[in-house]
From TrEMBL:
Keywords: ATP-binding, Kinase, Nucleotide-binding, Transferase. Belongs to the carbohydrate kinase PfkB family. PANTHER family: HEXOKINASE FAMILY MEMBER, PSEUDOURIDINE KINASE-RELATED. GO terms for molecular function: kinase activity. Residues 18-30 have a biased composition (Gly residues). This is Carbohydrate kinase. It comes from the Bacteria. It comes from Kribbella alba. Residues 5-308 form the Carbohydrate kinase PfkB domain.
Length: 319
C-alpha cells in the first residue's frame, strides 16, 4: 500500500454514563460514574484500521479545547494521520452522551457540528470510507456527496456505513433517500439490523441488500446482527456468519471495529483500489465477514470504542 486509506467523518468525545439519565461530568472522568472517551464512528474506524496495520488518514474537525486535545492524543497515539485543517483552534469539539442499558447497549444524544476541511484524494489511495452523522448533517454532508461523486472514474474502492442516528435524522424516508444516493457511489455498504429496522421497516435484510445491489457500483452489502453475527451479500454469493459466544461489557464501537476489519480483510485479499471488489468470491466473503465479526466481538468484551489490533485477533481467534 503506497498511500493511506482515507476516512472522512466526525471525531468526537463519547461521554459514557451508567444508564438512562446519567449526566456528563467534566474532564476525562466525570461525576455520577461517567467517563469521557474518544469516539465518533469514522474516527473509530480510522483507529481500527491503523491498529490492523493499514496506513490511515482521517479528514475530520475538532478543536484545541480539552476534549480536542484528548482526541488528538488518541488519534496520533494510534498512528492515524490527520488531514490538513482537521484540528481547528476556532472549533468546539463535538460530544456524544451515551447511556448504557442493562445489556451494555448504548443510546446517544449528540452535541455536534460538522463542516469538514477541503476533501481531496491522494494518488494511490486504495479506499475511501465514510458514514454516520457526517453523511447526513449539513453543511458537511453536501461536501461528502460532491466528493464521492468526483470519484466515479478514480481507481479507488469506496465503503459506506450509514450508522443511522434517529436523534439526528428522525425521518426514515428522507434518511433512506440520502443513504441510497451515497450507496450508489459506494462499492460496499455496511448496515446494522437496527439501521435496517429504522430505515426500511418491514423489509428483510436480504430485501434491503437486493435494493442496494440494484445499482451498478455497489457490489457487496454486509448487515450485522449483534450477537447473531452478520450476513454478507454480493451478486454472486450470500454468507451467514455466526458470532462467537462472549461476555458483553458494552457495545460501544463494535460496529466500527467490524467496519475496520472488513476494509482490512478486503485489503489482505487484494480487493481494494482499482479492482473495486471484482473477484470477491464466496470463500473470500465468508472469511472477511468472519474476521470482522471476531474484531467486533473483542471490542464488546471491553469498555468503550476500543478496537483490537491484528495481533489481538490472531491471539484470540487465530484470525
Amino acid at each position: 500500500m503506497t498511500a493511506p486509506v482515507l476516512v472522512i467523518g466526525e471525531a468526537l468525545v463519547d461521554i459514557v454514563g451508567n444508564g438512562p439519565g446519567s449526566s456528563p461530568g467534566s474532564g476525562r472522568n466525570g461525576r455520577n460514574g461517567t467517563k469521557a472517551t474518544p469516539g465518533g464512528s469514522p474516527a473509530n474506524v480510522a483507529v481500527g484500521l491503523a491498529r490492523l496495520g493499514l496506513p490511515t488518514e482521517l479528514v475530520t474537525r475538532f478543536g484545541t479545547d480539552p476534549y480536542g486535545d484528548q482526541l488528538g492524543a488518541h488519534l496520533f497515539g494510534n498512528g492515524v494521520q490527520l488531514a490538513p485543517g482537521s484540528v481547528d483552534p476556532g472549533f468546539r469539539t463535538s460530544t456524544a452522551t451515551a447511556s448504557l442499558d442493562a445489556a451494555g447497549v448504548a443510546s446517544y444524544q449528540f452535541d455536534i457540528t460538522w463542516e469538514p476541511p477541503a476533501l481531496s484524494l491522494t494518488r494511490g489511495c486504495p479506499a475511501v470510507h465514510t458514514g454516520s452523522i457526517a453523511t447526513v448533517l449539513e453543511p458537511g454532508a453536501e461536501a461528502i456527496r460532491r466528493f464521492l461523486g468526483s470519484l466515479v472514474s478514480e481507481p479507488v474502492t469506496v465503503t459506506l456505513d450509514p450508522n443511522a442516528r434517529p436523534t439526528i435524522t428522525p425521518d426514515p424516508v428522507s434518511t433512506w433517500a440520502a443513504v441510497r444516493e451515497l450507496a450508489a457511489l459506494s462499492d460496499l455498504v455496511k448496515l446494522s439490523d437496527e439501521d435496517c429496522e429504522f430505515l426500511r421497516p418491514g423489509l428483510s435484510p436480504d430485501e434491503i441488500a437486493a435494493e442496494l445491489l440494484s445499482v451498478d457500483r455497489t457490489k457487496c452489502v454486509v448487515i450485522t446482527r449483534g450477537g447473531e453475527g452478520a450476513i454478507g451479500v454480493s451478486r454472486a454469493a450470500r454468507v451467514d456468519v455466526p458470532a462467537p459466544a462472549i461476555k458483553v461489557v458494552d457495545t460501544v464501537g463494535a460496529g466500527d471495529s467490524f467496519m475496520s476489519a472488513l476494509i482490512a480483510g478486503l485489503h489482505t485479499r487484494g480487493l481494494l483500489g482499482a479492482v473495486r471488489l471484482e473477484g470477491l468470491t464466496e470463500q473470500n466473503l465468508r472469511e472477511i465477514v468472519d474476521y470482522a465479526v471476531k474484531a467486533a466481538a473483542i471490542t464488546c468484551t471491553r469498555h468503550g470504542a476500543d478496537p483490537p489490533t491484528a495481533a489481538e485477533l490472531r491471539a484470540t481467534w487465530g484470525a
